[in-house]
Amino acid sequence: MKLNLKRNLTLSLALTALILCSCTDKTVTDDTVTSSDTDEILYQITSESSLPDTENGVYEDILMSMTVEEKVGQLFFIRPEQLIDDSYVNDENIIGEEDEGVLYVSERMQEMYMQYPVGGFVLFAKNIDTPSQLLEFTDDLISIGKTDTLIAVDEEGGIVTRLAQNPAFDLPIIDAMEDIGNTRDTSNAYYAGDTIGEYLADYGIMWDLAPVADLNTNPDNIVIGNRSFGSDPDLASQMVRSYIDGLHNHGVKSTLKHFPGHGDTTADTHSGYVSVEKTWEELKQAEIVPFEENSDVTDAVMTAHITLPNVTDDGLPASLSYELITEKLRGELGFDGVVICDSLAMGAVTEEYTSSEAAVLAFEAGCDVLLTPQNFYEAYEGVLNAVQSGEITQERLDESVRRILELKN
């Protein structure tokens, strides 16, 4: 059962409504029903309160049709290279941006997907060659299995872009978020999100791992810097909201990152352990503001691998911390959308945990999407074994899969 059932259902309802219109005592000619009439009927249908129930029914039908293996697969969003086993590509080649990337769906990838039916793929610069190549690639990735996959990318603007920096693409170059924030004009943030959302949608990429909601509160920060809208919590929050509105104008999903705030750090979680010494109350006065104030509009929140010894007792990176994700983000801040961890191939995780351990810990902490583990196969088997043993309940698994299906709508 493909996720385009929702679209087909809506069109079917529209057709039914058109037929019903023709059955009234009003004389209907061939010219009576116009495209604007159809648009109005579709608007009325999708505005009806019964539609969410229909959607939920579709999600439940899909859940019921899935095997445990398929449900576990939905949790993982991986690089295309990771759908090839270790005899083809090793972990270093997968992660390294200087190495050649996968540019098309091969027969081998299709075979591997049957065994490891992942929820989606994350594209990097090495997966993007030309416009025609990307269009064919995303189309084939989306339709690789019985449940449509979702394609994601880090396309923030500024220094973090995968498409716009490719000279083969004639795309607008968006300023760094710091420059946009300095204008203090939220319409500039909207323009950034709207522009990026438009070209991502054109290429079949419907999930942007952006915007950055971090505050740039530490001048020695080597990770966030000008990727942030600035150090003012209120201004950054407004900019973030406008950027999200721009993405949503084209149906592209948004991601606030990196919860609970990576701005007040001096080290890089790509390399190893990073700690933030602030208390929760101090974070709520600054770093948390853009996350909390935009939790009602964003589709997802990405967690950081930073450790907060003055907030949690578990000593775990935020992405693996039940206290931070389930108790703080979901419980106290009330966020009920998709929680995605930052890449599980980063040093802050891999130096301390195996791929299996990290994936299970992140999921048990409250993450829905497990992003690019260092060894995908080990991580997948680790979560699957935890479900089969009862360590992870079926209810908990269904909870995350349901959120992911909703994200794909």
Short description:
This protein has 409 residues and is of the alpha/beta class. The protein has helices spanning 5-22, 35-47, 50-65, 68-74, 91-95, 107-115, 131-142, 177-183, 186-202, 233-248, 280-285, 289-293, 322-332, 347-350, 355-365, 376-389, 394-408, and strands spanning 76-78, 120-123, 150-153, 207-208, 255-259, 300-303, 338-341, 370-371.
Tell me what you see in this structure.
This protein has 409 residues and is α/β, with parallel strands linked by helices. It has two domains: 1-65, no CATH class; 66-408, TIM Barrel, CATH 3.20.20. It is built from 17 helices and eight strands. Helix 7 links the parallel strand 2 and strand 3. The longest helix has 18 residues, at 5-22.
Secondary structure blueprint with pairings:
Elements (H helix, E strand, L loop, with lengths): L4 H18 L12 H13 L2 H16 L2 H7 L1 E3 L12 H5 L11 H9 L4 E4 L7 H12 L7 E4 L23 H7 L2 H17 L4 E2 L24 H16 L6 E5 L20 H6 L3 H5 L6 E4 L18 H11 L5 E4 L5 H4 L4 H11 L4 E2 L4 H14 L4 H15 L1
Parallel strand pairs: 1-2, 1-8, 2-3, 3-4, 5-6, 6-7
